[in-house]
């Protein structure tokens, strides 16, 4: 029109930079939100020693209950109503009623040889949530009569109840080689 030739890609180029500018602004806003969230919650990850000891004691009592009364009894007694229980090769169990139903099926029970020992615990400064991590071992006799000892590790997420007791809301574990120093 005025004798100036504008290359065709100029419009695309301006759009391209505008699009990238918007993405950069969105990314920076996202990073800001993540940093703000992390800063607000960083203090909650620091736990008090007393709450850690209390949670570790609850996890150990849970194990002792399982050894004495059986896994079915202990895993139901120590479960929160909104429990999620994940086991190898099975879909997750969601809710206390589902946990009771799954474990109501006939299976050998009674005193359980499953033993675990928490190695670490963290509790939010609010004192209402925490987690434990530890090792487990499970001796079984195979169908051929061979004694086999399985090992693994686990993570349990716990919620403090209104009466002050701890109940697990999520429990999961994996098979591992024998942990160093474990019998």
Characteristic key phrases:
single chain, Nuclear Transport Factor 2, Chain: A, 2 domains, 4 helices, 39% helix, 31% strand
Question: Mind sketching the topology for me?
Answer:
Blueprint: H1 9-42, H2 49-69, H3 71-77, E1 79-85, E2 93-94, H4 96-104, E3 115-123, E4 129-141, E5 147-160, E6 166-176
Parallel strand pairs: 1-6
Antiparallel strand pairs: 1-2, 3-4, 4-5, 5-6
Explain the overall architecture.
The structure is a single chain. This protein has 183 residues and is an alpha+beta fold. It has two domains: 9-44; 46-176, Nuclear Transport Factor 2, Chain: A (Roll), CATH 3.10.450. The chain contains four helices and six strands. The chain has helices at residues 9-42, 49-69, 71-77, 96-104, and strands at 79-85, 93-94, 115-123, 129-141, 147-160, 166-176. Strands 2-1-6-5-4-3 form a six-stranded mixed sheet, covered by helices on one side. Strand 1 (79-85) and strand 2 (93-94) form a beta hairpin. The longest helix is centred in the N-terminal third of the chain and has 34 residues, at 9-42. The radius of gyration is 26 Å and the shape is globular. The N and C termini lie far apart (88 Å).
């Amino acid at each position: 029109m005025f004798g100036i030739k504008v290359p065709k890609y100029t419009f695309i180029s301006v759009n391209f930079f505008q699009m990238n500018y918007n993405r950069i602004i969105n990314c920076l806003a996202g990073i800001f939100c993540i940093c703000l969230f992390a800063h607000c919650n960083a203090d909650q990850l620091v736990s008090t020693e007393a709450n850690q000891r209390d949670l570790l004691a609850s996890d150990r009592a849970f194990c002792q209950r399982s050894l004495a009364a059986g896994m079915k009894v202990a895993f139901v007694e120590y479960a929160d109503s909104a429990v999620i229980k994940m086991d190898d090769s099975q879909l997750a169990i969601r809710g206390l009623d589902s946990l009771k139903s799954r474990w109501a099926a006939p299976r050998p029970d009674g005193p359980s040889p499953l033993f675990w020992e928490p190695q670490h615990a963290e509790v939010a400064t609010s004192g209402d949530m925490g987690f434990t991590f530890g090792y487990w071992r499970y001796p079984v006799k195979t169908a051929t009569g061979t004694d086999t000892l399985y090992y693994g590790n686990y993570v349990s997420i716990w919620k403090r109840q209104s009466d002050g007791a701890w109940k697990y809301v999520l429990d999961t574990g994996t098979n591992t080689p024998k942990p160093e120093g474990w019998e």
